[in-house]
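TA notes, week 10

Several of you asked for a full example with nothing omitted. So below is the full record: structure tokens for the whole chain, then the designed sequence directly under it. When grading your own attempts, check the secondary structure regions first.
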């Protein structure tokens, strides 16, 4: 409904006509929405001039409003085998100024993190699941391979010992490629390798170097100041001072290490952080599962200090209302 804000209000009162804007203390060209507190309850409300509100006074005024939103998919899992690459971060996409209509429901789908590879079963880390909201669908992060090529995804997995050594490919606008592995022969004539890191939302996964895994690609900070979608760090198989790599900022898990030579174990690495879309850290050995990727997240925000919509976990701060979806649900505007 849109009638100029200067439209008359003389609905049976004896005073001279006044505008809606004047009664609200706004400029004559101000936009008046149905969501304003003093506009929502029209019936029986008296104005300062003695007249009463009427729906005709607000004819043509839009009750829509705009939101900003973030969609992060689940991060990729890691293989359980020796010296594997970090899982790729879940795809990261965001939008601003999206128009929503009050009373309308908008589905928010939050993807799970990719499962870990299991020694007695499917050994490769699984790809994360997609997340979606409104016009955007983000792709799950790639899982690290096991005797197969690394898996592509929103961000690609890092190359590792049991794959082809080349990082998986990310999707433009969602995340980066995974890093590559490097190999060597140890003094005890055994094979060693350092795996690549998984790609992140804003950076490629690092390549492995001698005795050190490749770092996970960094994620991206959203409008709430929090960083999401970091890639997992690569693992190391054997070598002096073998060091698993750090995960990328934004929930990427750290890579494990197995060294300096066979039989000497170091930290096994970590999973991707939940609700960040972080990729899993590369696993260091075999016999137990690898690591899972972090689940994704959907966040919606709009300006103001009064909640308009419903759904998710609501936080009001810094002049904005945020709706955090840690699992799938519906945002009702």
């Amino acid at each position: 409904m849109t009638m100029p804000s200067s439209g008359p209000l003389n609905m049976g009162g004896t005073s001279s006509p006044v505008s809606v804007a004047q009664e609200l203390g706004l400029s004559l060209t101000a936009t008046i929405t149905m969501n304003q507190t003093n506009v929502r309850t029209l019936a029986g409300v008296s104005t300062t001039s003695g007249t009463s509100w009427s729906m005709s006074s607000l004819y043509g005024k839009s009750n829509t409003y705009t939101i900003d939103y973030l969609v992060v998919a689940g991060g990729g899992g890691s293989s359980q085998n020796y010296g594997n690459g970090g899982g790729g971060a879940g795809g990261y996409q965001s939008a601003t100024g999206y128009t929503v209509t009050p009373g309308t429901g908008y589905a928010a789908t939050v993807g799970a993190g990719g499962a870990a590879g299991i020694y007695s079963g499917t050994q490769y880390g699984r790809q994360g699941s997609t997340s979606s909201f409104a016009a955007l669908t983000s792709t799950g992060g790639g899982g690290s391979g096991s005797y197969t090529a690394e898996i592509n995804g929103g961000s690609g997995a890092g190359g590792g010992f049991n794959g082809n050594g080349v990082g998986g490919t990310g999707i433009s606008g969602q995340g980066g490629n995974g890093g590559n592995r490097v190999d060597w022969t140890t003094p005890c004539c055994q094979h060693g390798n350092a795996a690549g890191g998984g790609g992140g939302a804003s950076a490629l996964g690092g390549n492995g170097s001698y005795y050190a895994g490749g770092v996970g690609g960094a994620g991206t900070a959203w409008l709430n100041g929090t960083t999401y979608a970091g890639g997992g760090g690569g693992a190391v198989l054997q070598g002096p001072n073998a060091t698993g790599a750090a995960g990328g900022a934004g929930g990427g898990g750290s890579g494990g290490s197995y060294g300096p030579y066979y039989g000497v174990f170091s930290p096994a690495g970590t999973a991707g952080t939940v609700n960040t879309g972080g990729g899993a850290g590369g696993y260091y050995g075999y016999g137990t599962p690898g690591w899972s990727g972090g689940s994704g997240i959907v966040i919606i925000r709009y300006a103001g200090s009064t909640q308009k919509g419903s759904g998710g976990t609501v936080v009001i701060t810094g002049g904005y209302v945020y709706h955090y979806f840690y699992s799938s649900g519906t945002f009702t505007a």
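The first helix runs from residue 20 to 24. Use that as a sanity check on your answer.
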